[in-house]
Amino acid sequence: MSANKDFNVKWGMAIDLDKCTGCGACMMACQAENNLAPVADASNKQRVINWLVVYEMSNNKSFPDHEIAYLPRPCQQCAEQPCTTVCPVVATERNEEGGIVSQIYPRCIGCRYCMAACPYHARCFNWFDPVWPKGMEKVLTPDVSTRPRGVVEKCTFCHHRFMQAKDKVRAGGGNIYVRGVDNKLHCAVPEEDYITSCAEACPNGAIVFGDLNNPDHQVHKLVTGNANAFRLLERLGTDTAVYYISRREWVRRLGDNYLPDEETQKPRQILPKRH
Amino acid sequence: MGFDRRTFIKFAAGASAGIMVTPLPWKLLDDVAIWTQNWSWIPSPRKGETTYTNAFSKLDPFGVPMKVRRVRNMPVRVLPQPGHPLGGGLSALSIAETQLLYSPSRLQRPQLRGADGKFKEVSWPEASRKFQEELRNAGQNIAFISGDENSSVTEVLSALANALGSNDIYLMPSEAQSAAKAAELMGFNARFGYDLEGSDHVLAIGANILENWGTVLRNRRIFKNSHPHSFRNKETNKEDTANTAALVYAGPLQNNTAAVAESWLPIYPGTEGVLALGIANLLIAAGKTAPAADFDAFKDFVAAYGPEKTAELTGVDRKKLEAEVAKLLAAEKPLLIIGAASGSGAGAAALIAGMAVNALLGNINRPGGITLLPKAGKILKNAAPLADIYRNDLTQFFARREKPALLLIHEANPIYALPNPEACKAALKAVPFKVSFSTFMDETSALCDLVLPLSMGLERVDDAETPYGSGKISYCISAMVAKPGAGVLNTGNVILSVARRLGKDLGFELYEDLLRAKARLYEKSSFESLAAGFPAESDEKVEAGAFSFKPGILDKAFALEGNKGKVRLAAYVRASLGTAKTGIPPYSNKTLRADELRGNLMSVLINGATAARNKLADGDKVFLEGGGKKIAARVRVFEGIINDAAGVCLGFGHSALDEFSQNKGANVMELVTAAPEPETGLNFWCKAGVDIYKA
Predict the structure, then answer these.
(1) Whole-model pTM?
(2) Does the beta-carbon distance from A142 to B76 stay under 8 Å?
């Protein structure tokens, strides 16, 4: 229950909605990397497990003034996470090595309080045991365990890739944390060595991943001082690690329930911490 | 000493304290939590040494280089191959290639249709004997269909067909075929290459260049590089970044390309070529000329396609059209790309009109424009050049009365992918003996007499020569990254072996030997370097020579009308739904939104005005009727589509393949009928009207 901690490293994303075409490559890559089971009928979205979902957004104008945009939504990895605080068995917590909100499957008792608490619908419940067609289990990746029915799962920012990147640093005799030019401790894992599967797969480079606190990382440069960057449901005060970027005002306004006279990025009220 | 009350309390207190102190109950609880989630029927990932091998996708037709992660030599993940000239990220289909190795619809053994009409498993020697016998009996009355225009297998098939005395060989209809025909009619002894890297303004008409046109990953990498992330400085409130190239999309609906394009020009489906003529009219009015032999005749012809007329015919907004043409004129290196939103059936006339615009812009063989690439080379003496094979139209083959005695189909599913599948089915049934080389039991294979299980792309060595849409000549060889199952072989080897046994030796014992010989055509490369994932590239160009715009052909072609109906059919492609060959890959149907497919009912997109005109509302179950067939759909009111058009997604409605593809929506091609495009020798099916009414 590590809410409210301000860590040296804060893994995060910047997703450029002006580049996303909604092709679904990120969703496919996420499923393949994290050993999600395929299902024959995925039309009942309340029963389908996806760690990352691409939503279609509309400016709600009639033809020919209509515009669309696509919004990929992984777990927002909140710093003020509503999910961990409600977990009765500490099956989910925010990791101090970068602020990734984990899910510990063997601890999860399937109460789904976390799902109810998550304002981003980022968590999924295994209503059924995962089933792979005969033989398809042979292509499970070795880094992520499969999950049985009865537990909740979610995007982990491909945390196993972080572990592998750290191992590489250690194997090279380096320290995981080094002091940067700003005199703060930063992760020594090179930016290109830890990238989530979705960011890696995106052909348009719409998803940028890195340490939001590291001034050398592209993600930091993209969101710091960028008036086109915003976060989802900012006024809830969840302090998420996923930023979105768009030149389009109507896209930015859909990021939160803005009143007509409210400016984006400046919601009139943000809920206090530890609400 | 008795067990009195005090002793009992002491014992109880001690036990309570002991339980609290000992880790045993917590450990047991933890173990229970773990072991109640560790059931034998839930598979565990296999651990082992990881290695990486480069490969090139043979399932995705849009040129996808990949890096395959293998654990204990078993491929588990497809990853991007950085640095590849056609690469950059991944396509949805390529990601699922490792899963598709174990698709429930994969064919593991040859299947021969028995006298009772049912398939029975036979051994490869038996299947091979039967195939050879039927080929011998059919003599020269044979026809071949190839579903892979980039692979040398097509060359092998063509060589065998010619050796047996037939030149009846077809490719599945594609954009490349339309372009090849257009190039031939215009007098170019070349294929069109698109220098997207060098262009600063791309106008895509119909061609969904970021989803299913050309070298998609390369297109998207170029888009990524020319469109930096926006950064509006909080202090100055000004954009610090600017796009280095503009992308404009013209098409009937806001598809993936339109979603990120700078602007969208809505036009009616099937009017792509007419829009190009309207643009040509404005360019000529602005003083542009081209060194075409028939330029004056073309100028007279396009005089009839003034902005008003173009707006009336295509539905485009006149002011927007004029503004876009002004931007084309202002750009330093503008490029026009034209194609069918559905990926095939555009005919050749639209391509000619598009190339005429490029010629007016001075784009032929200019950086950032159209590069005239040399035609594909071949090494088998008997094989027909690829450009000749493109002349044969498959839809016309299915429509013709005389049928061959034997039809061989390699990695193609025409029964699903061509217009009017029922008529194609009837035509296929009329062929006495049909052989399908296929990885999956698809709709076409299910109707064949002999089905030969083909190794999947990851399980064989194969090649890809300059996928359509490339900017320059390239040659890639895909290495074998997975051991093929005992029952599958690759078409190249089977054909070479059968040809030898028929006394028509094609000069190579193994398909890999042929690829090794082909690799030698590329001076700076070797088979080994190509197979390691380093493609050969060449900047070779062909001189334009004398060319013409063929206004006579355009005139007749654009007068062609499709089926009539209340609305125009705007078929579109969602590449994540796979291809006709693969069906919907595992994981893909999870990418569909609830408003695209609900249960087994797909959506039809119409805008609010069209819905009101047809007395329909969002969520209504409707029938779409055209060409004597009807399919069911649910209305989705979507304002990103032009008036009086109905957007329907291709890729649904499979009756074969596996549970991931079946019972999902309907096949839109059922509503479409192909008609000959005058004087081009190709069939056209991008202009279909359908009726829409409440179910």
Answers:
(1) 0.95
(2) yes
Fold (topology level) of B560-694: Barwin-like endoglucanases (2.40.40)
CB contact B497 to A (< 8 Å): no
Residues of A in contact with B79 (CB under 8 A): 200
Tell me: ipTM over 0.90.
yes
Distance from CA of A179 to the nearest CA of B (A): 28
**How far is A23 from A18, CA to CA, in rounded Å?**
13
Phi-psi region of B624 (alpha: psi -120 to 50; beta: other; left: phi over 0): beta
3-state secondary structure of B433: strand
Q: B196-368: which CATH number, 3.90.550.10, 3.40.228.10, 3.40.50.300, 3.30.10.20? A: 3.40.228.10
The pLDDT of residue B101 is 96
pLDDT of residue B1: 61
Helices H, strands E: what count in chain B? 23, 28
C-alpha B466: how far from chain center: 15
Q: pLDDT tens across A95-122, in order?
A: 888 999 999 999 999 999 999 999 999 9
pLDDT over 80 at B562, yes or no: no
Give the pLDDT score at B484.
Answer: 93
Which of A16, A21, A46 to mutate to probe the B interface, most B CBs <10 Å? A21
Domain ranges of chain B: 5-35, 196-368, 560-694
For residue B350, pLDDT over 80 is answered with yes
A145: pLDDT strictly greater than 80:
yes
Residues B411-423: pLDDT tens digits?
999 999 999 999 9
- What distance in Å separates the CA atoms of residue B465 and residue B586, rounded to the nearest whole number? 28
CATH fold, domain A11-253, is Alpha-Beta Plaits (3.30.70)
Confidence of residue A2 (pLDDT cuts 50, 70, 90): very low
**Which residues between 220 and 259 in chain B have a beta carbon less than 8 angstroms from any beta carbon of chain A?**
220-221, 223-224, 227, 229-235, 237, 239, 254, 256-259
CA distance B28 to B275: 73
User: Which residue from B45, B256, B257 is facing A142, i.e. has the nearest CB?
Assistant: B45
First to last CA, chain A: 15
Inter-chain touch B589–A41, beta carbons under 8 Å: yes
**Using an 8 Å Cβ cutoff, are B276 and B261 in contact?**
no
Q: Which of B103, B590, B607 sits opposite A31 (nearest CB)?
A: B590
Does the pLDDT at position A262 exceed 90? Answer: no
Nearest chain B Cα distance for residue A249, angstroms:
12
Average of per-residue pLDDT across B640-650: 97
Q: Which among A31, A68, A106 has the least Cβ separation from residue B587?
A: A31
Q: Which sequence spans correspond to the domains of chain A? A: 11-253
Supply the pLDDT for residue B539: 95
Q: What is the 3-state secondary structure (H, E, C) of chain A?
A: CCCCCCCCCCEEEEEECCCCCCCCHHHHHHHHHCCCCCCCCCCCCCCCCCCCEEEEEECCCCCCCCCEEEEEECCCCCCCCCCHHHCCCCCCCECCCCCCECCCHHHCCCCCHHHHHCCCCCEEECCCCCCCCCCHHHHCCCCCCCCCCCCEEECCCCHHHHHHHHHHHHHCCCCCEEECCCCCEEECCCHHHCCCHHHHHCCCCCEEEEECCCCCCHHHHHHCCECCEECCCHHHCCCCCEEEECCCHHHHHCCCCCCCCCCCCCCCCCCCCCC
pLDDT band at residue B602 under the 50/70/90 scheme: very high
Residue from B32, B213, B590, B654 to probe the interface with A (highest A Cβ count within 10 Å):
B590
Among the partner-chain residues A38, A143, A226, the one whose CB lies closest to the CB of B660 is: A38
* Nearest chain B Cα distance for residue A52, angstroms: 9
**Contact: B640, A68; criterion CB under 8 Å:** yes
